[in-house]
């Protein structure tokens, strides 16, 4: 079969069960595509071909025996921020270029236990700090829709791999938009779950009160399948929540779009820098949801102007603390011939970290330092609470809130935005993490340059089923999620 990469997760699961093809054939098919096409996309940092085939054979045996998980034998790619035992985990940094984790992240362990086959580890912004994946030590990844454009970030490798059909699904992480924005830039569906829904154990920490892993795929249905595997309480992550996990696949048609109240924040559609095509496509998608029976309700989110400054204090503050562990002593990069211990710390960190990571550490350390702590960090925490309350108030009147995922479509590689310009591009995604809410991106069309546009739906706590169900029904009535970039149509 030459077009196995066109099948959905449900179709792959059925095909494997009915022995139309084996996991080995499917895995070889993807490995061949990666070998041929990824030279252009550059989405993978590490391809684990040999191990993938071993896992595929094991899955084939399990499927034959009749008691395999629904996803057994289906390949996936992991963002290179999830620790994988025996396989390099770099977080896109020179600091961890040679780091091999002695254990699996819980997300990785759960995927393995279900029999999913790991194709490899995919590129990302260094320590997940960025919106273009260009800050990776391993170089930029191309957007499958236009290779001279970025796939977004920080989960840009995950997005590019799926959009170029170099993996049917991928894991990502979202601290301030890193699942939703690359999904938007690459025309994919991506879900950022409620904080605490997916275990952070073994996920290299950026900002621990904001970080959350989730699925990236072509459709809400594909995301639901992966969510069924990775969601749930984990005793190894004290911030994961012990709450029953929905069957996200069974619930895909469970929410009625008819009668659904969708909040449209006034402030969001007046943001300076909101691209006219993005605005138009998002409005068209809302019109479609209206036709399907939803009601659009104008709402106020008065804290909008505070999102960027609040996040860009709290996230760097937490990062500066989390990244203090990379000292050249225990693991990670160590400078050559240190004169003394201070020289070892200084040079290992200034040679091992890239510019954006160093910028965040400096900002965060400053914000946390004695004398400034109250003025910056404590104040940001108070504003964070106000942002959360703003959302909770809105959810008294609406079921979900709609927004663009990003104010623009994908930037050109090397566009060299200033840090402030780059940070402003996160305006629509940051507040969701500050409040700990779930949100989803769905592709809703293209701009004049044929680059994808995404709609974001933000839900109340634990409403992952609702978000997946709304997008699933939208996708039953539209075909944006079925569009493929030309490079994905190439055969290996
Ligand atoms: N772009 C944001 C940042 O640079 C969000 C990144 C993320 O979600 N990991 O911090």
From TrEMBL:
The active site is at 79 (charge relay system), 154 (charge relay system), 178 (acyl-ester intermediate). It is an enzyme of class 6 (ligase). Transmembrane segments: none annotated. It catalyses: L-glutamyl-tRNA(Gln) + L-glutamine + ATP + H2O = L-glutaminyl-tRNA(Gln) + L-glutamate + ADP + phosphate + H(+). Residues 25-468 form the Amidase domain. One of its GO terms (molecular function) is glutaminyl-tRNA synthase (glutamine-hydrolyzing) activity. GO terms for cellular component: glutamyl-tRNA(Gln) amidotransferase complex. Keywords: ATP-binding, Ligase, Nucleotide-binding, Protein biosynthesis, Transferase. InterPro entries: Amidase, Amidase_CS, Amidase_dom, AS_sf, GatA. Pfam families: Amidase. The keyword ATP-binding applies. The keyword Transmembrane helix does not apply. Its EC number is 6.3.5.7. Heterotrimer of A, B and C subunits. Allows the formation of correctly charged Gln-tRNA(Gln) through the transamidation of misacylated Glu-tRNA(Gln) in organisms which lack glutaminyl-tRNA synthetase. The reaction takes place in the presence of glutamine and ATP through an activated gamma-phospho-Glu-tRNA(Gln). Belongs to the amidase family. GatA subfamily. This is Glutamyl-tRNA(Gln) amidotransferase subunit A. It comes from Acinetobacter haemolyticus ATCC 19194. The gene is gatA.
């Amino acid at each position: 079969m030459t077009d196995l990469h066109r099948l959905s997760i449900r179709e792959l699961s059925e095909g494997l069960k009915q022995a139309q093809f084996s996991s080995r054939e499917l895995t070889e098919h993807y490995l061949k595509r990666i070998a041929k096409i990824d030279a252009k996309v550059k989405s993978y940092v590490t391809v684990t071909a040999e191990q993938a085939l071993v896992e595929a054979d094991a899955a084939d045996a399990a499927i034959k025996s009749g008691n395999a998980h629904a996803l057994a034998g289906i390949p996936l790619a992991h963002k290179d921020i999830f620790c994988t035992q025996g396989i390099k985990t770099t977080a896109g940094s020179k600091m961890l270029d040679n780091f091999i984790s002695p254990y699996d992240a819980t997300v990785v362990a759960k995927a393995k236990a279900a029999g999913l086959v790991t194709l490899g580890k995919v590129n990302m912004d260094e320590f997940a700090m960025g919106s273009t994946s260009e800050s990776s030590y391993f170089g930029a990844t191309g957007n499958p829709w236009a290779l001279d454009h970025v796939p977004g970030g920080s989960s840009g490798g995950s997005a590019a791999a799926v959009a170029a059909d170099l993996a049917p699904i991928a894991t990502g992480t979202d601290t301030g938009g890193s699942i939703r924005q690359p999904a938007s830039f690459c025309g994919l569906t991506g879900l950022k779950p409620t904080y605490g829904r997916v275990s952070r154990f073994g996920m290299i920490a950026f900002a621990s009160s904001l970080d959350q892993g989730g699925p990236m795929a072509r459709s809400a249905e594909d995301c639901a399948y992966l969510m069924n595997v990775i969601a749930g309480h984990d005793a190894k992550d004290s911030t994961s929540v012990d709450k029953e996990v929905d069957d996200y696949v069974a619930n895909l048609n469970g929410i009625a779009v008819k009668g659904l109240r969708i909040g449209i924040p006034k402030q969001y559609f007046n943001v300076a820098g909101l691209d006219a095509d993005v605005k138009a496509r998002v409005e068209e998608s809302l019109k479609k949801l209206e036709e399907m029976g939803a009601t659009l309700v104008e709402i106020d989110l008065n804290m909008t102007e505070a999102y960027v400054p609040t996040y860009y204090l709290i996230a760097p503050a937490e990062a500066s603390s989390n990244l203090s562990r990379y000292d050249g002593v225990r693991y990670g990069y160590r400078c050559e011939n240190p004169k003394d211990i201070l020289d070892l710390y200084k040079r290992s960190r200034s040679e091992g970290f890239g510019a954006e990571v160093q910028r965040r550490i400096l900002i965060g350390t400053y914000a946390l330092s004695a004398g400034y702590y109250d003025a910056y960090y404590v104040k940001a925490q108070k504003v964070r609470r106000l942002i959360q309350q703003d959302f909770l108030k809105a959810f008294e009147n609406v079921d979900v809130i709609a927004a663009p995922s990003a104010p623009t479509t994908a930037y050109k590689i090397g566009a060299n935005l200033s840090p402030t310009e780059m940070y402003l591009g996160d305006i629509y995604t940051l507040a969701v993490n500050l409040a700990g809410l779930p949100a989803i991106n769905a592709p809703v069309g293209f701009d004049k340059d044929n680059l994808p546009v995404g709609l974001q739906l933000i839900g109340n706590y634990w409403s992952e089923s609702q978000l997946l169900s709304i997008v699933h029904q939208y996708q039953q009535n539209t075909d944006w999620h079925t569009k493929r970039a030309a490079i994905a149509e190439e055969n290996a």
